[in-house]
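Recall the central idea of this unit: under ordinary conditions, the amino acid sequence of a chain determines the structure it adopts. In this exercise we apply that idea directly, starting from the sequence alone.
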Amino acid sequence: MKKQLATLLLFVSTFSAFGQLKYYKTENGEFIFSFARYQINNESINTPLRFSGFFHYGEQLHIDFNNYVGVFSGWGIRNVGFTSSNGDTMYKRRNYYVGIPVAIKVGDMKNKNFIYAGAEVELAVNYKEKLFVKGDKIGSAKFNSWFSERTPLLMPSVFGGFQMKSGYNLGFRYYLKDFLNPNFSEKGIKPYQNTTQSNVFYISLSYQFKSGRKAKNKTSIPSSI
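Accordingly, the structure predicted from this sequence is:
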């Protein structure tokens, strides 16, 4: 996280020497369509599309160096997970993540048409798991836990996408760590010990809208978002 902020400050200090900066804030929600590269004992397991529309929220501070290049950072909370299906058994697993992204954007800053790419580190806040057998939910197997050791506490990812003038945003994200922790143990049982891969990735559709005052020229970054 410190490296991400240091990178952002480096971009800002470099470009601020060539002119005034423009900044503005945005807010957004997301519709997330996720999958996973999921393997047990090195054999691929089917992961049907998982749709999530709740609860996703984010705020971003955008800094435009000129009409062609800018950066943004901020914070966000999102519901991310995957569904796996193997025979008559289906699992639904998800985490609530809180993260801080850092990204660079290139395009038409004036009209808010640009592509972007960046990285983010997210904190896994709440884990939830459900089991279905032949379509019936097994109530005794449903649970959720805060800051669970079943998944990594910190989850890094890379992302990119396209922002349109209309406000709509199409994005892609890939998580660099396995979603499940194969070393997790509870009462001497390791439920994920045979998991050899569980990387989640998704496509998202969101709407970005400005919040607060309009963009202004500044020679320095505001002290807070």
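Confidence is low (pLDDT under 50) at residues 213-225.
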